[in-house]
Specification:
Elements (H helix, E strand, L loop, with lengths): L19 H26 L2 H5 L2 H6 L18 E5 L27 H4 L2 E5 L16 H7 L4 E6 L1 H15 L6 E2 L7 E5 L4 E7 L4 E7 L13 E10 L1 H4 L7 E4 L16 E5 L2 E2 L6 H19 L5 E5 L28 H5 L9 H13 L5 E3 L2 H5 L15 H5 L11 H19 L1
Helix pairs in contact: 6-13, 8-10
Bound molecules: 2-acetamido-2-deoxy-beta-D-glucopyranose (NAG) (5 copies).
The site of one 2-acetamido-2-deoxy-beta-D-glucopyranose (NAG) has 3 residues, from helix 7.
Keywords: Golgi apparatus, Membrane, Signal-anchor, Transmembrane, Transmembrane helix
Family: Belongs to the PC-esterase family. TBL subfamily.
Main location: Golgi
């Protein structure tokens, strides 16, 4: 963005001195605007954390007079969940819901409990000020984004994220309508603010296609029904051509890179330059290569001015077995901090270890790029209590699919991801 204040226009020489009247009418408002502007810079320009509590919030709470001192390295990814009141931002009637995650409508037990926790980022305030406020004002955000477009690309966990975002914004523009152009899988247009938010489904980010067994090259025919050919160097068509359409892009991949989506009878086979890669890559090696190629493509094709985010892996909470082995997440409270490693540290070989494994590869691939990591993993690791579990809105769904300890109930945890994303967007736009 432009920074109009960088070079203030030189004062215009004037032949006549200003009359007192002109002084009052012109100068005073200018001085006032200048003061407001300085206060604004002070508040939002410098400190990422303060941005976590966006403008409308701060003004409403009259915080501008007590600006706390913040450390430079404030990080919303670290912190703790505390009991607090978190008014629901939307209800089961939001038109952007996906049925299986509409926990209010599906009668999920404990929805109040799920939404009674507030994420308090590790305090970056050196002198304890008033307790931090969370959330943001959707109307103020939409105004700040007027005329802009925000795109999400990735798997169903990014869809989960975008539904939370759409429903939150819907509360500020009831005339929002569904929007599915440009190959979007789902999206919304907010006419009062001319803002578009959409999701492009591309579960592996690269293009992949089913190849029946006849297409197999010699040798590996035996038990394989066929395979999925992944072209590591070809981005999926669902998003390849929208790179300059959006002003903000949020990527993710991760949940399909495992044997439950691609078991050995129907594996992934990685291709580069149109040829199978030799030696064949394991699924995680394939992910590493796809991440590198995707990041390279984003660097080449997405305009510099576009804000780019990569969302870190969303953790799963299957307890006592995998999703197809009666794995369960009927918890009433978040996990305690000292239990997190037992669940997630890859060294413990638990069912949910892949979140941190995938994150490691993401972190590596993003190094040296202008893509910001949106690190929501740690805060989400606590929330074993917040998945749809057995309340899936369909009879027999649990029998067939097992519990859903992967996606999140809405309203719920992704609303906090939205808080962090919004704070980051406002911060980055403010910084230019
Ligand atoms: C995300 O944040 C957590 C908590 O601060 C940290 O432990 C983890 O290493 C971060 N992950 C990545 C990929 O940066
Ligand atoms: C759901 O929220 C919308 C928008 O805020 C409101 O108009 C509607 O009455 C609410 N519905 C229910 C059932 O509470
Ligand atoms: C994307 O655009 C290019 C150039 O216009 C075109 O060749 C390509 O087929 C398009 N790809 C998809 C998936 O639409
Ligand atoms: C991916 O990129 C990272 C960082 O540039 C590099 O360390 C790694 O070797 C690359 N991996 C592959 C498989 O290309
Ligand atoms: C899951 O639970 C059902 C019913 O209790 C049982 O019949 C089945 O054997 C269990 N499956 C596994 C893999 O433990």
């Amino acid at each position: 963005m432009e920074r109009p204040w960088r070079k203030p226009p030189p004062p215009r020489p004037s032949a006549r001195p200003f009359s007192p009247c002109v002084l009052t009418v012109v100068l005073l408002p200018l001085v006032f605007l200048g003061m407001v502007f300085l206060a604004h810079l002070q508040l939002y320009g410098r400190y990422p954390l303060l941005n976590f509590f966006p403008p409308a919030m701060q003004q409403r709470h009259g915080k501008s007079s007590t600006v706390p001192h913040l450390r430079r390295d404030c990080e919303p990814s670290r912190g703790q969940w505390a009991r607090g009141r978190r008014p629901l931002r939307y209800n089961g009637s939001c038109p952007f819901h996906r049925n299986a995650w509409n926990c209010l409508r599906n009668g999920r037990e404990g929805m109040e409990g799920i939404n009674s926790w507030v994420w308090i980022p590790e305090t970056c305030v050196s002198e304890a000020a008033s307790p931090p406020k969370v959330g943001f004002d959707p109307a103020a955000f939409l105004s700040a984004m007027r005329g802009r477009r925000i795109g999400f690309v990735g798997d169903s966990l990014n869809e989960n994220f975008v539904v939370s975002f759409l429903c939150t914004l819907w509360s500020a523009d009831g005339d929002a309508r569904k929007w599915k152009k440009k190959g979007a899988w789902k999206g919304g247009y907010f006419p009062h603010f001319d803002v578009t938010v959409a999701y492009h489904r591309a579960v592996l980010l690269s293009r992949y296609r089913w190849q029946p067994a006849e297409g197999l090259t010699s040798g590996s025919k035996s038990e394989v029904k066929g395979f999925y050919r992944v072209d590591v160097d070809v981005p999926a068509g669902d998003w390849a051509n929208v790179t300059s359409f959006y002003d903000v892009l949020v990527f993710n991949t991760g949940h399909w890179w495992g044997p439950d989506k691609f078991p050995k009878e129907t594996p992934l086979v990685f291709y580069k330059d149109g040829e199978p890669m030799v030696p064949p890559l394991s699924i995680l090696e394939g992910l590493e290569v796809v991440l590198n190629h995707t990041v390279g493509y984003i660097g080449r094709e997405v305009p510099r001015r576009t804000l780019k985010f990569w969302r870190s892996q969303s953790p799963r909470h299957f307890y006592g077995g995998e999703w197809n082995q009666n794995g369960s997440c009927l918890f009433k409270k978040p996990i305690k901090e000292d239990q997190l490693d037992a669940w997630f540290d890859p060294r413990n070989r638990g069912v949910n270890k892949e979140a941190r494994e995938v994150n490691h590869l993401i972190q590596q691939a993003l190094q040296g790029t202008d893509i910001h990591l949106l690190n929501i993993t740690y805060l989400s690791e606590f929330r074993a209590d917040a998945h749809p579990a057995i309340w899936l809105g369909k009879r027999d769904a649990v029998k067939i699919w097992g519990q859903d300890c992967l996606h999140w109930c809405l309203p719920g945890v992704p609303d906090t991801w939205v808080d962090i994303l919004v704070a980051q967007i406002l911060h980055d736009l403010g910084e230019g």
